[in-house]
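Input structure tokens:
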């Protein structure tokens, strides 16, 4: 879709519908967990997800050279941060989020770097290299979600980043077969060699062996370690946001458990958490979130995400000092986001009314 050189007018109803559609057809786990977010956060999370999804598609399969795609996205971010988004649904929606929350640009730049790493086919020799990748494509999203919830404390942001990295490691373990069929390998190559697997030879003929299962199990163990560390950040979130983030953590960790139940064979099939199990975990998150307690010890952040926390800390200090200049969208921004939230509330109310009617007639 060609981008207009002119700033795009606000189209809140159409923009929200389009962003919800993108989320619904993307990450099912993110979509399910987002339903537990309060309205004041959910609209922003939808807009953020929509831009991330479209940016990933542009870099990975948009038919452009990586450098050209990155230049296009950088320009689009420039316009978004100027308050003059180009004529794309996701740009207009993200501009609202940026203006209302003063979202640090460094977090979005980190995410785009991760997309570029994917398109470039970068190799990951060590676990630390994989942490660096996860920090960009998922840790940055965790930090942005934490930020739009209004949380600026470095420890909370660190735990949010680590939760994102843990989720990305789970994704990698689950998608080993699918990635291999696309010529990609994200498992730490050093681990593969230690297990007796030559990475390039395995990519030419991927198969599940006890050696591969050992590497996949090792990666899931690292994800579990980060899930445990990240859990300490959930009590630092606003009370009305905790259940959604806890649900995302529980469901993603369950993907790893399902993979174990499937025999640690990500080549034969992709581990999927059954809907019934997801519903149980969603309900469990809603209950557990009410009695989460703060942890006494604050762990240092994972090395790979420390720079993201530093950028957030700089942004928080600037906000506190009143150093962030007023943006051109002004009061229109607040109005548009509040309208987003009202529309989404109406959508949920209408759906609930339909369900009540269906139940009444079914009896």
């Amino acid at each position: 879709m060609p981008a207009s050189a002119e700033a795009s007018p606000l189209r809140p109803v159409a923009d929200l519908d389009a962003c919800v559609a993108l989320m619904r057809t993307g990450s099912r786990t993110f979509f399910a967990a987002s339903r537990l977010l309060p309205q004041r956060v959910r609209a922003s999370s939808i807009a953020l997800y929509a831009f991330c999804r479209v940016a990933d598609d542009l870099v990975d399969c948009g038919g452009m050279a990586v450098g050209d795609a990155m230049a296009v996205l950088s320009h689009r971010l420039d316009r978004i941060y100027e308050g003059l988004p180009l004529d794309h649904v996701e740009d207009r929606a993200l501009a609202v989020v940026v203006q209302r929350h003063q979202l640090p640009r460094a977090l979005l730049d980190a995410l785009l770097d991760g997309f570029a790493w994917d398109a470039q086919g970068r190799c990951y020799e060590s676990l630390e290299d994989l942490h660096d990748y996860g920090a960009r494509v998922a840790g940055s999203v965790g930090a942005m979600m934490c930020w739009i919830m209004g949380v600026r404390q470095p420890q909370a942001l660190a735990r949010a980043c680590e939760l994102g990295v843990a989720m990305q490691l789970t994704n990698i373990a689950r998608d080993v077969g699918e990635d291999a069929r696309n010529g990609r390998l994200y498992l730490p190559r050093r681990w593969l060699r230690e297990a007796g697997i030559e990475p390039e030879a395995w990519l030419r003929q991927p198969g599940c062996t006890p050696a591969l299962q050992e590497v996949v199990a090792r990666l899931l163990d690292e994800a579990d370690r980060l899930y445990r560390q990240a859990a300490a950040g959930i009590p630092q979130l606003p009370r009305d946001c905790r259940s959604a983030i806890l649900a995302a953590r529980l469901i993603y960790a369950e993907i790893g458990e399902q993979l174990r139940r499937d025999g640690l064979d990500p080549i034969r099939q992709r581990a999927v958490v059954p809907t019934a199990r997801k519903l149980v975990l969603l309900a469990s998150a809603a209950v557990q979130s009410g009695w989460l307690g703060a942890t006494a010890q604050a762990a240092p952040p994972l090395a790979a995400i420390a720079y993201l926390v530093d950028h957030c800390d700089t942004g928080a200090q600037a906000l506190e000092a009143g150093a962030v200049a007023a943006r051109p969208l002004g009061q229109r921004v607040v109005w548009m986001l509040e309208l987003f939230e009202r529309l989404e509330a109406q959508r949920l109310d209408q759906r609930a009314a339909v369900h009540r009617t269906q139940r009444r007639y079914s009896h």
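The radius of gyration is 21 Å. The chain is about 70% helix and 0% strand.
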